[in-house]
Specification:
7-stranded antiparallel β-sheet; 18 helices; 9-stranded parallel β-sheet; alpha+beta
Length: 693
Amino acid sequence: MVFKYIFGEPIETQAVVKPIEETPGSLPYFTTVRKEEGYSFTFRMGDKDKIWGLGQQVRGINKRGWLYRSNNTDDPEHTEGKHSLYGAHNFFVLKGETTFGVFFDYPGAMTFDFGYGKKEEMVITVPGEDFKVYILTEDKNSAGEIVREFRNIIGTSYIPPRWAFGYQQSRWSYGTEEEVYKVVKAHQDQGIPLEAVYLDIDYMERYKDFTIDRQKFPHMEQLIRDLKEQHIHLVPIIDAGVKIEEGYDVYQEGRDKGYFVTKEDGSYFTAGVWPGLVHLPDVLNDKAREWFGNGYQELIQMGVEGFWNDMNEPALFYSLEGLEAVLKKAETINASQMDLNDFLELQPLMNEIANKKEDYESFYHEMNGKRIRHDKVHNLYGYFMTKAAAEAMDRFAKGKRMLLFSRSSYIGMHRYGGIWTGDNKSWWSHLLLNIKMMPSLNMCGFLYCGADIGGFGDDATGDLLLRWLEFALFAPLMRNHSALGTRRQEITRFDQMEAMKEMIALRYRLLPYLYSEYLKAAYTGGLYFKPLAFVYEDDAMAQEVEDQLFVGESIMILPVYEQNRSGRWAYLPERMLLVIFSTAREYTEKVLEKGSHYIPIEEHQVALCIRENHLLPLGPGGQNTEEASKGDMKVLGFVTREAEYEWWTDDGVTKAEGATDEDSLEAKGVRKGKFTVEKDLKKRQEGKKESGI
Ligand code: MIG
């Protein structure tokens, strides 16, 4: 059951797409308190209550015991002391004696205190008057079913083209044509599958959106064509801010038509980002959004089939006013007479100039005929920038699935694109963070997700990259990306390259299964990455396991996320078949009983468990997703009676024209096959080595 409560006159965020009648009265479960500004909602938690959700956030899968703030922020330090990352995903399930789901459709900054202030108190604070709250309940008190209910009201998640499940290589930046060709060649020489190469900000002319630096990319059209012939897609970045420069058509048009956000006095708000001074397109305004989307057209016509949208929190290095204030302050201080107090006053001025609250409160959007101050809708900016791109793709590449993902997001954007989790670091703790974040994102509708494999900031080591690949080979978005100034991170640069290559090859063998499970998760509101707690709702141990995940219905993965480890402990909530892959073709199998086990997993190995009477189809693999989707499939299985696997697929490129959530799967192009296996237990219990399947 879904109950909807309306406070004031909420902004239409389009997060929820199913029409739901308003429920009169006040929120169940919570004590509502009217504050001077806004409301707070308090719920007394039981000792054992767990909280799942909130999407892109720091810390564990169980969100209890910390204060989270939905306030989309460009902050590259994803440490556990932080309260916000790039997304605002205001949905969670509380699971305990009572079990319910909650979604706060409020696009301004708000907080979720999950037992931070008081151990047993949940306090949700909305510092605004206008918002909607959805409360979801379900007969069996199943967290998974509540998530499904939620996913059903927010609409089908974005489905990328199948090639976007291939291995992708990025770097800030591959700055010239030659460099792109070199990266491609380095992979091809080693027989490493590669399906996308990314262009970071340096392909543009002085960081101007929708331009190409022709000095560095004189033959862009040909580059795109050449790569595509080899099944490789070139994926350019688009930043939110539009450079202020006379003669630059995007700037001039936006300025003349009034499509940028404005300050109180009606003049355009000016900020500093990569291009220098910029205006921000008012993507919350329908006309401005369509106009900004038109910018993608030229690249699409050149053959580009994928984009990544960056800096759309929106990130502000500074505002013009903010910078002026700092410089003015600095002028008042005389260096030779400066005392420590002056210094301590001066020092943070520059450090704190970025992404300032006062700046976000100083500009306005024109949304559906209403002038709205930015901070009230802050968390929608990345969502609507991505919607601009998605709508443009529908106009300029009709009927074709395109790759699209964003850094900043809000629930609702999950229908238009995926996300990458931003500027993580080459740290083992961030591999673990990646593992824990994925299921939470899935709960909020974001399925096409991934972190920068190997880590973005800081220097990666070969063992970290390898272990990371061993997890990320299960993630829909499998992209290696790293920052300017860090150690080069292509797999060809490490001693462990052969092992890394095998893990990528294994990804391609798993592709039919992973893609099938992705389609199921998207079309049925299920989780692609599932915590054990969602599979074994009555198993107390399983409730707490956060470093093993189900991927789809058949397998539980056991990633190794610590350095210098040749194995790990794992908890099996039931008897399962352990499969350890040493290469894409060689593996060992062993039945393990329910309970805790130490499992040796060498650096070059990846471990997963198949559930009893479940199957894992394996494809032939190949150099690209097209090859990997054809040909004979084998199945691995742990079959003690019989097992069946329903295999879903489609053509991988077509976007079902105008299909609505109500249309049948067939109408959306989904085809289903079936594997059935009957087997006797004896053979499987012996544990045997097979190769060359
Ligand atoms: O201020 O475009 O998260 O992936 O490489 C940094 C350069 C801007 C942040 C993105 C990152 C990208 C980088 N960008």
